[in-house]
Amino acid sequence: MIVSPSLLSADFGNLDRDVEMLNRSEADWYHLDVMDGVFVPNISFGFPVIDAIARKAEKPLDVHLMIVNPDKFVSQVRDTGAAIMNVHQEACIHLHRTVQSIKAAGMKAAVTLNPATPIITLQDIITELDMVLLMSVNPGFGGQKFIPQILDKTRRLKAMIDESGSKALIEIDGGVNLTTAPLLAEAGADALVAGSAVFGAESPENVISQLKSL
Length: 214
Hints:
The protein is an alpha/beta fold. It contains 8 helices and 8 strands; from the N terminus they run βαβαβαβαββαβαβαα. α6 links the parallel β7 (about 170-175) and β8 (about 190-195).
């Protein structure tokens, strides 16, 4: 299992310490949630913080833009050194154009679906995507409870990917912990974003290791 801890739950007063912990850990990526207070009802951090993390990070950055008009920031995300740029289907009027712009910038293109957005909205673009992120909580806040219907949605997305011949990975974000993670793995998830479950644990590295072993 690919593990992408969410820095949204890190201690921003000790960000160097938490990034160095992830460097030592079995984590695969760093998940960075950028919120604008418009698309989602919260504000997190922007490019100066991402740049600071990137200078210390020894693993790929998985940048998740929970913002309006994400296509305006493709070059800025690229300039952080991000490996993956993740945009919301609901925020992109011309999704295919946005995906092509991300790829042209040399990054992997990922598209996120909110809990109520059906997977069929990606049917005509699924073969163009490197990853689909299913939100298993409503975006905007950390520490929310997992929405169980996402298990069936994950299975249906996996079937769509297999039937289309797409190579897209399935990533899950929201309420991921040591209880929900095995269920998501069984449903077909390839990557898990975990925030509170990692950074709120007594031993974050141990939690990451357990998630990685799924």
